[in-house]
Amino acid sequence: MNSILSKTTLGVARLGLVTVNAGVLLLGCLISESSQAESAAFELASTQSISRESNVSEPPASLDIYQDYLHRDIRDDIFYFVLPDRFNNGNEANDNGALSGISHGGVDKASTRGFHGGDITGIEQKLDYLASLGITAIWMTPLLRNQAIQKDGIAHHGYWIVDFSEIDPHFGSNDDLKALINAAHQRGMKVFFDIITNHTADIIRYSECHQQDGQFRQGLDHCEYKPLSTSKTEQYSPFILDEHADIKVPEWLNDPQYYHNQGDSSFKGESSLNGDFNGLDDLNTKNPQVLKGMIEIYQQLIAEFKPDGFRIDTVRHVDLSFWQTFTPAIIDYANQQGIPNFHVFGEVYDTNPHHLSLYTTEGKLPSVLDFAFQDVAADIFYRGKSPLLAKQLFEQDVLYQDEDSQADLLMTFLSNHDMGRAGYFINGSGLELTAAEKLQRSILSHAFMFLSRGIPVVYYGDEQGFTGDGNDIDAREDMFPSRVNSYNDNVLMGTSATTAEDNFNQSHPLFMAISALSQLRKEHRSLRRGVYQPRYYQASTIQDSAIQESIIQASSIQANSGMFAFARVDETSGEEYLIVFNSGNQSASIEIDMTDKGEPITAIEDVLKTFKAAGDLYYNGLPSSNVDSSHLIDVEKQAITVSMPRLSYGVYQIKR
Prior knowledge:
This protein is of the alpha/beta class. 23% of the residues lie in helices and 18% in strands. Residues 1-54, 540-544 and 610-630 have low confidence and may be disordered.
C-alpha cells in the first residue's frame, strides 16, 4: 500500500514549522473509495494564558509552557506510551541483560516473546522524532530489574521485578535513565515511570504445587486459588529456593509473610485481589508493612531520578485502602522534592465509568486510563455504531468529580500493549473498508482523542500505521527493523513499508496527522482546558432508553446519524470551540440549535481552513486549485447548519 501523500507534497512540506505544517494536510479531510480527498489546514492562533484555581503549579506568564515542563499543567500534555525493548536499540552490548544471574538472557529477536534489544539510550536517540510528533510526555513500561525468564515467557515488558532499586540491564543503567530524563527535560518533555505495587516476579513456590526444585508437580501447570475461608491446615505452604533466598531488593520483599500465598487468581471474586496474577507473587497490600515499604520504594525512586509522574499497573487488583494512603504520600513527597505537578494515573482495566471512577474518588488517584473512552471511540469510528455512545459516555463524567480529580484529567487512548492496536480493531471491525477508509478512520479516532476531553496518549507505532495481529505480544511490534515473521507480514496503514524496515518515517500520513493535531491542541488553549459541552447528538431528545438503545445499535438510522458535535468552552474567558464529526459513510448536514448556549453568535471562524498553495503542490493526485472547502457553515440567528463529507470533521471558533 502506497502512502496517500504524493512525493511532490513530501518534498515541499516541512514539519515542525510555525507556518503551514505538512501534517495538517490530513486534518478534517475526506478520503473516498476513488482516492479523491479534500485537504484542510489549521490556522495557528495564540490564546491568552489564563490561570485556573487549583492545587497545581502554573508557569510564570513569561515562560513557554512547552519548555517549562516542571510547572506545566498535565492537561496541556500529549503522551507517548512506549515499550523500550521494541522502540530503538541504542546499545547492542546490553541486549542480553546482565552477564549472569536472574536478569541475564532472554534475547530472541525472531520471537514475539523475547527481548529484541531496545533500550533507554535508544529512546534518548529518538527524542527529536518524538518532538516532531508533538509529544510532551513519555510513558515507558517498567524499567526496574526483572527476572528475565519465567515459565510463561520473557520479561521484555518489564513487569516481573526482582529489584526495585536499579534499572534492568537489558534496558541500560541508572545513569542511562538519568541521562534520558535530563535530555527530555531540556526539550521540555516530561518522563513518566510505569510502577507496580501489586506483585513481584514469580519467586515463591508452594509445597502443595511444586517439587523441591521449584518445578510443578506432575499434572499441574498452576496453583489453584484457595479462598480466605480455607482452613489453616489446607492453606499453601510457601517456600523459596536457596539460590533465590535474597534475590529481591529491598530485603523485606524476600519474606513470604508479606504475600497472600493463596495460589493463582481466576480474576473473579476475592481472587482478583488476593490471587497471584498469572503466577506473580501477590503482595498483601493490606499489610501496613507492605504499604510502608512500597511508599519508601517509590519515594526513593523519585528522589534519585526526579520523574514527572507515575502510571500504576494493575490498580484494581490492589486493596482500595492502599491507594487512599499511597497516592497522597507519593504526590506529597514529589512536591517536597521540587516536582510541583507530579501526576499519577492508574490502570483499571474496565470499561464501566462507575468502576473506573471509584479509584479517582474513593481511591484518591487523580486519574485513570479511560478504557471506557477507548471502547466508545472504537465502536463509533471503527465499528460504525451510533455517536450516541459518546453522548452517554460524557454524561457520566460527573462520576469523576471530587476535590482532587475530574474527567478532563483522564488519560484517553485508542491502543495499548495489552488489548491491541487501533489498526487491529479497524481490520477486525466486520466492515468492508478500503485501505484509504481504514487510514481515515484511524485519523478520525485520533482527532476525537485530541479534541474531546481528557489527556491524549499515543501508543508507539500507531503513528506509523502499525496494525498488529491481536492483543498482548501481538501488539508489540518493533519500530527498528524487526526479525519477527508474524510482525513483518502485517499490512500497515498508510504506507507500503513493513515492520522489517526502520519505521521512524516523519512523512507517514498518520505521523503528520498526529503532529498537526498536537500543534492544533497546543495553539488553542480551550481545546486542552475547555469544559466539554454537548451540542448535537442524533435523537438526543428521545427519552425512552429502549428506543435510544435500538438507535445506538443501528449503523444508520438516517443520513446524518453519523454526525455529532460538542464544544470546548473556557469558562473563565468564554472562548468557545465547536467540534463536529461525521463518522458516517455519506455526506450529511446538521442544524445545531444554539439558542440556550449563551449570547448571540456574531461570527464563526473555521479553524481548519482549506489548504491551498501556489505552485505545483499536489495532495493525493488532486491539484490544489481544484480543492474546495469541505466544511460549509451557515448561520441564521442562533442556529448553525454544518455540512460535511463522509468520514470527516471540523473545528470552529464561535464568537459571541
